[in-house]
Amino acid sequence: MVWQAIFERCYHKCPELSEQQLERFIHTWNQPLSEHEIQEIIERQRNPFPVTDPLHKRYQPFHPTKWNIPNKRLPTAYIELLRYSNGGEFSNGERHFQFFSADELRSMMLAYEFPEYMPGAVPFAMDGCGHHYAWDMRTDKHQDEYPILVTHSGNLGYEDAVPIAETFMELCKGTISAEHIRYG
Fold first, then answer.
1. 51 Cα distance to chain centroid
2. What domains does the chain contain, in order, with CATH numbers?
3. pLDDT tens-place string over residues 82-104
4. Burial of 20 (0-12, 13-18, 19+ CB in 10 A)
5. pTM score > 0.85 for this model?
């Protein structure tokens, strides 16, 4: 695949992953949460409501021990992108991509608490305006692909997510912004 021909603009190309780094990533991105990750997630939870708010007493922190990370393979086209650029920033028309590096994919999924708010979704990029591109891995893949949703980081949930592409290449070749797809 010639990635230089896929994107109209390359704002920042990162070094490619070595085959050894790629193999490690492929076999570790979806491991169960470690004790360290669980503790980190628990410690950062705070009641968002002031003590005077009636919702303060109703706040219940969530339990990351109940989270499941999809035990699925990532699309081949995404793996090929990592061989070209381990993360990076690109665009086509009005569609902008800030791809997560192999090291960032899992950490961003956990930082934004996707397993809590969108179980089965795996974010792999953002658009620069707070929108995530995420694979919907709730069902089995079709020919090495999963549907791709766009959702806003401030309002994660399947009820507000919008389909943007059926394949990774369809997403990358698209020219309409994620914001326009979501809001019209």
1. 34
2. 7-31+69-183 (3.40.1580.10)
3. 999 999 999 999 999 999 999 99
4. exposed
5. yes
